[in-house]
Design a protein that fits this description.
The chain has 7 helices and 4 strands. With 280 residues, the protein is mainly alpha-helical. The chain has a domain of 194 residues: Up-down Bundle (f41 fragment of flagellin, N-terminal domain). The strands form 2 sheets. A two-stranded antiparallel ribbon has the order 1-2. A two-stranded antiparallel ribbon has the order 3-4. The longest helix is centred in the N-terminal third of the chain and has 56 residues. It is rod-shaped and about 145 Å long.
Length: 280
């Protein structure tokens, strides 16, 4: 049973509480619409905020992993290009060695010319192996080994690839220059060089095959990471981004409630004045 009292205006208190609640909701909706985010701080949704933070570091980690993998692809492409060039040089050296192995059909001047070209090609291989770098790392002199590429967001072995590239110097390939190295200056030396060069061709082909397989692996990882990152981003968006259709509907309703709440609070505050009519 309601009473007409002066000291405690319950209707005004109720109207004020409702108006205050509407004002809080309206402020939250305005913040969401102005930022585009349904979750801006942990107070908005503690559990959702924690999940969103987990999504964020996983998305960031996956994006950096994509960058790492793309750099890795560029690195192995650099090594592959150099190995292809070395393979081409070795094929020419094989032809020269085969030519000088035929003593009965090669005159001394041709033997000497072929030998000089052979030495030049040996030096060219050495130069390529010594100067093929990615950043500050030499790729083909034998120092690039057991290198790690982070290909995931987490600190696990599954998110890492370890690889290296064998040395492609003339010494490592068995076609070294110098007095104790490979030469085609005589028929016997040319025959020996022919076997050494063909073994080097097989070695370089195997190295190139390994590098090519690694490149395909890295490109596959990059493709998978890209799809994963898209899905993670979509999941995070579903969690933290504002549904503008829903939020604008709420905003309109809250504006009406604010106006009506303000009007009702004004009316409720005037109710105690009715007591004066009882006193007259």
């Amino acid at each position: 049973m309601s009473s007409l009292v002066v000291n405690t205006n319950l209707d005004a208190i109720n109207a004020y509480n409702n108006l205050n609640a509407t004002n809080i909701s309206l402020s939250q909706t305005i913040a969401q619409l102005s930022s585009g985010l349904a979750i801006q701080t942990a107070a908005d949704n503690p559990a959702g905020y924690q999940i969103a933070q987990n999504f964020t570091y996983e998305i960031n980690g996956a994006q950096q992993a994509i960058n790492n993998v793309q750099n890795g692809v560029s690195l192995v492409q650099t090594a592959d290009g150099a190995l292809n060039q070395i393979a081409s040089i070795l094929q020419t050296m094989d032809q020269l060695a085969a030519a000088n192995s035929s003593g009965g059909t090669t005159d001394p001047a041709s033997v000497a010319a072929n030998q000089q070209e052979f030495v030049d090609l040996q030096n060219e291989i050495q130069q390529i192996a010594s100067t093929t770098t990615f950043g500050t790392q030499n790729l083909l002199n034998g120092t690039f080994s057991n290198e790690i590429v982070q290909v995931g967001a987490f600190a696990t072995v599954a998110d890492q690839i370890t690889f290296g590239v064998s040395a492609a110097t003339v010494g490592a390939l068995g076609v070294a220059t110098g007095s104790a190295g490979v030469s085609i200056g005589t028929v016997s030396a040319a025959l020996s060089a022919l076997a050494s060069v063909q073994a080097a061709i097989s070695t370089v082909a195997s190295m190139a095959a390994g590098v090519g397989s690694l490149q395909n692996e890295l490109q596959g990882i990059a493709a998978n990471l890209t799809v994963m990152n898209q899905n993670l981003t979509a999941a995070k968006s579903q969690l933290v981004d504002v549904n503008f259709a829903e939020a604008t509907t709420q905003f309109s309703t809250q504006q009406i409630l604010m106006q009506s709440g303000t009007a009702m609070l004004s009316q409720a505050q005037q109710q105690p004045a009715l007591v004066l009519k009882l006193l007259t």
